[in-house]
User: Fold this.
Amino acid sequence: QVQFVESGGGLVQPGGSLRLSCGASGSISSIVNMAWYRQAPGKQREWIATVTNGGTTYYVDSVKGRFTISRDNAKNTVYLQMNSLKPEDTAVYYCNIRGAPVNWGQGTQVTVSS
Assistant:
């Protein structure tokens, strides 16, 4: 079963940017929908973005226009470019298969604070 390792999080000021990466232990080329999720303190994990094998993207309204999801099947990696970050974006970010998630990775912490 494929496993995912997220990286790229950190502490950033409001308005700043971060680029998250999600490396897979195996090929993702056959996985149609890859997604990013996040879990803020005291809240349930929520879906925030999906990218299909064809490059079509979908976003939750709260990140639309600020975040960009992409994938590189040759590198078995999914990315999340996050711009104009807000304090409410503070969360642990995870990637997984959309609709049929496998074991969750450790995630990467993103903290937006001045």
